[in-house]
User: Fold Vacuolar protein 8 from Chrysochromulina tobinii.
Amino acid sequence: MRQDFEIAFEELFIEGKLWDAGVKSSFPYGQTNANEDAAGDGPVEEAAKRDGIPLRRVTHTGWRVCAGSAGSAGSGGIARLVELTRSGSAVEKENAAAELSTLAYNNADNQVAIARAGGIAPLVELTRSGSLVAKEKAAGALWTLAYNADNRVAIARTGGIAPLVELTRSGSAVAKEKAAGALWNLAVNADNKVAIARAGGIAPLVELTRSGSAMAKEHAAAALWNLAVNADNSVAIGQAGGIAPLVQLTLSGSAVAKQNAAAALWTLALNDDNKVAIAQAGGNANDQAAIAQAGGIVTLVELTRSGGAAAKEQAAGALWVLTRNATNSVAIARAGGIAPLVELTHIGSAVAKENAAGALWSLALIDDNSVAIARAGGIAPLVELTHIGSPRAQENAAGALWVLARNADNRVAIAQAGGIAPLVELTRSGSAEAKEKAAAALRNLAVNDDNKVAIARAGGIAPLVELTRSGSAVAKEKAAAALWNLAVNDDNSVAIAQAGGIAPLVELTRSGSAVAKEKAAGALRTLAVNADNQVAIAQAGGIAPLVELTRSGSAEAKENAAAALRNLAVNADNRVLTNAGVADDATLKKSIAWCDEEGVTNVSDIVKHKLVDKFVLHLGLKNVPGMELRSLLQRAPMSNRGWPSIPSWLTSFGLPVAGNGAADEKYQRALQEDGFALRALLPGTDKSTLKSLEALLKIDRPKWLGKGNDVSKTYGPYDKLKLACAWEVNHPLLRSKYTAGSLTVQQELRQLQNRGKDVTTVPGLPVKTARVRGFELSEDCNEVILLHGVNREKLFNLLSTGLNERFAGIGAGAAFGAGVYLAEDAGKTDQYVSADSAYDPSSELHKRLYDETMPHPEDVFYVLVVRAALGFPVRTQHTGEGATSMDNEAPIFPVAYRELSAVPGVNPPIFHHSLIAELGKDIVRYREFVFFHSDYVHIDYVIAYHRYNGDQKLRTTVCPVSV
Assistant:
């Protein structure tokens, strides 16, 4: 990002848009700078006013020195002035330098002419060895000459940087002002940025911002602004103590000083360490309480409220960068920053609107801020910016609406504010980035049923379909996700197909990014509920890539693809061909064409009219698949009831396969009434799964069983745990939440990797359960299998609501507060269980677990097998609110007790996804894994097990041993 800003600086000067009085230029993202002193004068005018000499006299004196110039700045006159700076008397050198400064001010031709006449070298020499006045005048001349890009290079090559730096340190007050101004312009050049720092220029410039004259402070702040574009300089300015005086300038400096200091803080804030320093810096004795709470943030917030137009732009830009640190985002909100930022999106300058919208975008990532922005009236002006703002403002406003639309009330408010139509328009005609953000916003808005209809009425389906075809990789992902949500509406499902949406979605399942495949499969899953769409998806070649996704896609892609295939299987042709294992694109197309030719519409027609052999022959299948297809067709009944079950390979992804009888009826009824269902695992059909679950109960240290402060009853000594029975959990709602949560973790891991973090060799991995085979896990989110011990009294609630702090954290939260506590050892989870001794016909839990096919085994304990997206964990060996990371000693709870710290060195901030309590110090015997977001965990199985001592099962109905 710094590189982009540096380019922006260079372009400004190449275009001649220097900091002249009244000239407004952009940095970054259109920020404004102006080289204006308090009176709007140039360097010569400043000198005239300072010395009390009428401006005409100064100019006249200069021309008088240029004898023979005929009152013009011709080449002869300039050459004479240059010669005087080299060989004239002391007074002549002073006057010649002053006149050259006047000639070069705001005159590009003279700037070139003076350099060509050899004027730079003697002026540099004067800054080094001239009289006190000559140094002042020469520094002023170099300042004005440095408006020219070639001159900036020439001054540096002639050795001009070192004496200018020395003047900022030890020159007169006037010399310090001029030298700081010269360094300001010289620092536009990338090489000069480095050279000024190497010459020791940062420290005296910092000192000038603290103790210089009003003008020196303005110039020094601007010079530091330019220097801070270089990453190393940014660090050096922070280390030199530059943050605090810059913050002070935003509080008490002149209007120009405030503007320049805010801009410098903006640039410095791009460095992670400086973000913290800016937030901690003080400077206003009259507001110590606020400064102690938020430091420099308070001053920047105040500038967005009451500064000049340019200062508001710079301050909003600085706050935007600071919001990428979560702690700063909280501080900005507490400092009252949301209201003035909202105000800027409404009535600020074009640049201020861009920066304020960007800041609100980042602030909205915190849920409380999202609510506060809406309450402050932020939605309406953001919607307005998506409609008539600059391209950058449209991008930032769409991004802000995207994040705000995560909140249900905000989704309604955005629609009521007229936000849907301009977002739709951005997906059609906005910039590439605006299209991505607008599609993402529509995706979130489409969670609301009314918005689904409104987006379609606003013409949103066609441009979203187009984005899935020709948008950027990110746009394709967002558009596919939006279409997925929209397709839940029946009319939209038809409209998406009519808009040509099926073909590009199918293509995304084949060749899109991992995320695009997930979202496209989800969209096809929903579209396939419609009978016509089932045919269209098959005709578009959708079955083959969906089948492939069930084998090799991410967890979410597998789930969506399997569900899509299940929906497609409702169509008779698709179902029979899929079950026969011949559902490749070519065969499906042949099948559809043949059916059209023969006038048959379903499989029952093929059987009824005795066309089975003809159909199989037409498809040209080899013997074995042909025989399989023939067999399936001939077994097919005359209606859709009782069709052969969904292909067996779908069962490996946790999807229930309906069978016959009371068990299936019980299962389906539970899904409808409870929202979840349990499938008993049977030795005959689930042998491999049961073997894997049994392996999870293996104990490495039998002597530790029954030990620990949390053990309530042991029922005697025991040395092993044995599986009694188990159930697979199917909770569609919680599974979808976990899918979304694990996707978030996956995306954030990808962002961490892009920012240089190693997400493949994460400390704390692998977990012990990784040695157990049979569980298909996603490396994309560092997915693991963990365990959670549970009492019979809590089990039903956990199965219904999922693992969350309301149930999972109660009684287990002494170490790190309320959270989801998991373990890799069954010996650890065994500490938290109590016995379920016998069947209770009145128990709601027992009604769902046990029946004639799965009788209660008596004397059992329960443990949950949990799939968890470990992501990028933070590790500690301490407990309590003050626990610190064992990797970097930073607090693991910097913001709130229920939120983990951000990953160091990453901005925008990404928070650690999980906590690993490692052995040592406060942690003994077993590691623990704690999650504070229930969307990152999912219950896959329930195990009922017995405690054994040798070969003897422990009875739990007599003589329990209290601990």
